[in-house]
Amino acid sequence: MERHILVVLPHPDDEAFSVSGTIAMYLDQGSTEVTYACLTLGEMGRNMGIPPFANRVTLPVIRKQELEASCRAIGIRDIRMLGFHDKMIEFEDKAKLDGSIEALMKELNPSLVITFHPTLSVHPDHNACGAAVVRTIGRMTADRRPTLHCLAFANNHEQEIGKPDIINDVTGFLKQKMASIQAHKSQFQAAELLGNKKLSDEEIQARFGMERFWTYRFS
Question: Could you tell me which residues are beta bridge partners of residue 37?
């Protein structure tokens, strides 16, 4: 049982595929609080909907609304939008970036933090986000550090860090997870996400029913 979970990810929609089932599962237990800190509004995303209904000017507003809808589907009430620049996290001032995360740590005192692995998460924003969280928590004394769970999906991630030590069966929360994914309409249309045919319940369970995490070990 976790007292307070802080999720730190860089883009609207990062939560949908990676943690939505796990967070819905914790919230269903009734005694866990959850805060989602989203670093950017994904304003540099290339997808504008199919057919397009967004443009470069309107996309950040639309993605903010989609993020809010996704969080409602999961059950997250506390969303923090930190206002950093999409596709620029690796170039942000580290003191400012880490400071925003440190402020949340002091305010919320989470028992569990979830973010991307700092080197094995493919997108530069993912890696830079994870690195900032690792730096920030790493500066805390060992007795005050929350548990840190990382997402990893680079091609070589299991060779580097082994198999995940946390595997959550979220098949009981696929309704929330699929609603979270589908909330991000500008990024994931049904045809794009599921192909040209509707997936069966069995196919949805096989594809989305497990969420995997690696506990970060501070030296």
Answer: 8, 80
